[in-house]
Amino acid sequence: MFTKILIANRGEIACRVIRTARRLGIATVAVHSEADTNARHVRLADEAVCIGAAAARESYLRGDRILAAARATGAQAIHPGYGFLSENEDFAEACAAAGVVFIGPPARAIRAMGSKSAAKALMAEAGVPLTPGYHGDRQEPEFLAERAAEIGYPVLIKASAGGGGKGMRRVDQPEDFAAALASCQREALNAFGEPHVLVEKYVLRPRHIEIQVFGDTLGGCVHLFERDCSVQRRHQKVLEEAPAPGMTPERRAAMGRAAVDAARAVGYVGAGTVEFIVQPDGAFYFMEMNTRLQVEHPVTEMITGLDLVEWQLRVAAGEPLPLPQEALAIDGHAIEARIYAEDADKGFLPSTGRLLHLAPPSEGPHVRVDTGVEQGDEITPHYDPMIAKLIVHDRDRPRALARLRAALAQYRIAGVTSNVEFLQRLVATPAFAQADLDTALIEREQALLFPAPQPVPDEVWALAALAELQREAAEAAAGDAASPWSQADGWRLNLAPERRLALRCGEQTLSVGAQPDAAGGWWLSIGATRLQASGRLGPDGTLAARLGERRVQAAVVLSAERRQVFLDGRTWPVVRVARLQAGGRGDDHGGGLKAPMPGKVIALLVAPGTVVEPGAPVLVMEAMKMEHTLTAPSRGRVSAFRFAVGDQVGDGAELADFVAEPAAAA
């Protein structure tokens, strides 16, 4: 076994590998970019080496610098994690040439499966079922459009290299094909350096089921059952579970055999995943093979009781597979939810910023949290915005689902927008609860997942006001108690003392009246409601409060003018409005189009001077490895663009001069 390994990755997966290595007594070396100097994986590792600037192409994608770090620190092997260089055959070959073990498959296997087109040809030879489509080398737009027409709409355009939903578009009608193809090719070229795509029949209401495989250097190969990854947004997985609901023993055996055949066809070694598209009738087709450890591997670990990273290390060290196929069994059910810094209500737009408050649910035998960040860390625009993976396990799916709901309700995140509430709504939908799964579940459940805004509950206003009053009282106690200017008791000449707090949450603004009561609490006036409130605000934001006759356990995180209120599994961003503040709400966009995050302009979709309708695409930005199309907020004229294609822009930058115009006469 190795005595020291280098981890050529960052974030959650780097921390995950460190955990297993430490348990096995293996020293670890972290590599990091300048942006990750104080990252959690750097803090956890035994040693750390800076390998370049923030951009991945200057750090985590620099195989030469990573190998130099391995040689300098005496690391015997390199674990690539997932993403970055994990499926780069050139890097695997470079490791072998340098005498450093690559903890993954041989370069020939990565190369064979790295191109979706080449992989499908290989799978056809091995007798693995394939989705109907065009997987060849010709890439002329007119030729591909002809193939799409022959296949029959809807079709799916997919980047031949890479994965993660990048360079992938569903096309429902011929007139949309050219634009979708161009977008796929741009995104594929940017993410993988290769614009080659394939075109396949889009299977209606498909499920995405993958099989975990493992091979060793002695010819052994097994599968560790399946995972259902059907619940996706923008072709990226959101929820994963194992085993797949409704899977019969016969189909599991057939898919397992096909996956092992696929792995054996390329002489596979290490952890890999064979992904299938499954029709409603149970027919399955090979989609691709991921030649690395998957993000969702923890659900397989939970139902098998195995540590797949340990398996990777043992196989890479030349040991045989720890267990044969007949010794592997499924125990219970596991579900994983990906916790992202993103705004689901704004098209899952990534959110950046500092994690001012991060309180995950308590871990135990049934709840696991894999994360690469801690409170105070920053989510930057340079990398994937994942905060954590929340994994739950119990003896069956209903019990596991109940644990997931409870754990999500306990999650508290402030400083960035997260998808926690979206996940709560998602796992509560009847479709997910009843395992009516397919890759369009999120689109089908729009009404439940994106409900119309509701009035802010009185309890939320009360908690925000109570926390603010507690904060002011603490500040007054720490100041000059003899000075009248340090008092915040609402004293008024010839009137009962009263404070007025102006608060805003979303589109709602409210003035809350507060009068001290004899017991040390407050009488709060919230619109027509008057209630007695008291409580104690802890240093971690916890607020044990009494609101009228109700006692609640909540949390209020204070940051500048914002008070993030957590109650009953939900969160409300409440802003304290200064009484003397003039002007607008402070978040108006004026007459322009602003960058929602730092990124690069990659396409201007209209000419200056064009009049566009509401929702019309205006320009495309690339940020966090994905394309984001900005649309017109109303009918108006795009007078001019302030940036050219290729320009880097900052968060909130005015991208275009946009002048609103009245609606056209009927």
Automatic annotation (TrEMBL):
Keyword list, A-Z: ATP-binding, Biotin, Ligase, Nucleotide-binding
Keyword rRNA-binding recorded: no
Residue stretches making up the ATP-grasp domain: 120-317
Domain called Lipoyl-binding: residue spans: 582-659
PROSITE patterns named in the record: ATP_GRASP, BC, BIOTINYL_LIPOYL, CPSASE_1, CPSASE_2
Cofactors: biotin
A GO molecular-function descriptor: ligase activity
Residue span(s) of domain Biotin carboxylation: 1-447
InterPro entries: ATP-grasp, BC-like_N, Biotin_carboxylase_complex, Biotin_carboxylation_dom, Biotin_COase_C, Biotin_lipoyl, CPAse_ATP-bd, MCC_alpha_BT
Pfam families attached to this UniProt entry: Biotin_carb_C (PF02785), Biotin_carb_N (PF00289), Biotin_lipoyl (PF00364), BT_MCC_alpha (PF21139), CPSase_L_D2 (PF02786)
Taxonomy, superkingdom: Bacteria
Keyword Acetylation: no
Protein name, UniProt field: Carbamoyl-phosphate synthase L chain ATP-binding protein
Species for this entry: Sphaerotilus natans subsp. natans DSM 6575
